[in-house]
Amino acid sequence: MNLAERVRRIEPEEHVLPSGEKMEVGLFRPEDGAGIGELFRTIYGDGYPARHVYDPVELAAALERGDNYPVVARGPVGKIIGHVALFRSSPYGKLFEAGAGAVLPEHRNAGINRLLLAFAYERLAPELELEETWGEAVCNHIYMQRTIATFNHVETALEVALMPAEAYEKERSAAGRVASVAVFRAYRPRPHVVRVPEAYAEALRFLYAGLDDARTLSPGEADIPPDSVSRAEVGMLPFAGVARMAVARVGGDFESRLDALEKDVLPQGFKVIQVSLGLGRPWIDRAVSALRGRGYFLGGVLPRWFDEDALLMQKIIGDPCWEGIRLFSERAAKILELVREDWRRTQ
């Protein structure tokens, strides 16, 4: 039996709503597509950034490709009352993100989101043979942060001003752009050496001290082989105004690649540029110095991003909206302190 067949054979779970009505939590079926779109329109209007949730055909196609695995809560007569998904969003194929969480307002505070996540993390992720999961818990409230803490994830980064306030306009839950805490969970350990840039030695010692996997921290180096070529990919989230550059390997052309990215996206009005730098090669310090010199500051670490870990750095055009950040844990508060202090130093 191949992977796709095993996943399809995962049996749905039956639960009972507080009203006494039956509810089913299970993997997406093609007939759920229209209901998922209606769920997101009810909560976000047509403004949810991940546009595929409104497209039943693409939802089915992404499942067949193995790119997106929606988990839904089906209420009476099959109505979709909740949704979360495991999906590809990083360069490494065994690291999936859990996100796109939504529950109809009239069914909130009934534990539905927790049941969806339990199905995704405890049943679906092992069946997919994932080695790590991650997520972005929004910081305009603490509810998702508090929930995800019960599923053995560790906070490793803070993504400042990640989402536009417009995404939350219908619920009126954000006055400005919304930050997210990045959280990770290891299913299969992968101890390895991480090259630590001097500028962030103290910060990375703190971040790795709480990780649920083993790492050996080794100092980085400033020199980059002059004839080396960066291995990098750029992704865009136009609605969110976010550009991302994933640099698996820093080469001698890194600064010119970075300048080209900024020249492209800044005139278009992008508000956030994130750069993830692979920490597997020793010549990390010069790249960090180049980024800090251009106003980028610490985000944190992204375990297993390239299979090896990555350092997240970020640049914000406009207001970082610090005052709107709400955090659940002491660890997240410490990450905010580290991130904000580096922002002060680099602006």
What this model shows, in words?
- The protein has 347 residues and is α+β, with helices and mostly antiparallel strands.
- It has 2 domains: 3-186, 3-Layer(aba) Sandwich (Aminopeptidase); 192-346, Aminopeptidase.
- 28% of the residues lie in helices and 32% in strands.
- The protein is built from 9 helices and 15 strands.
- It has helices at residues 3-8, 33-44, 56-65, 112-127, 143-148, 201-209, 254-265, 285-293, 330-346; strands at residues 13-16, 22-27, 68-74, 80-88, 95-103, 132-138, 154-163, 178-186, 192-196, 215-219, 231-237, 242-249, 272-278, 297-306, 308-316.
- α4 (112-127) links the parallel β5 (95-103) and β6.
- α2 crosses α3 (56-65).
- The termini are far apart.
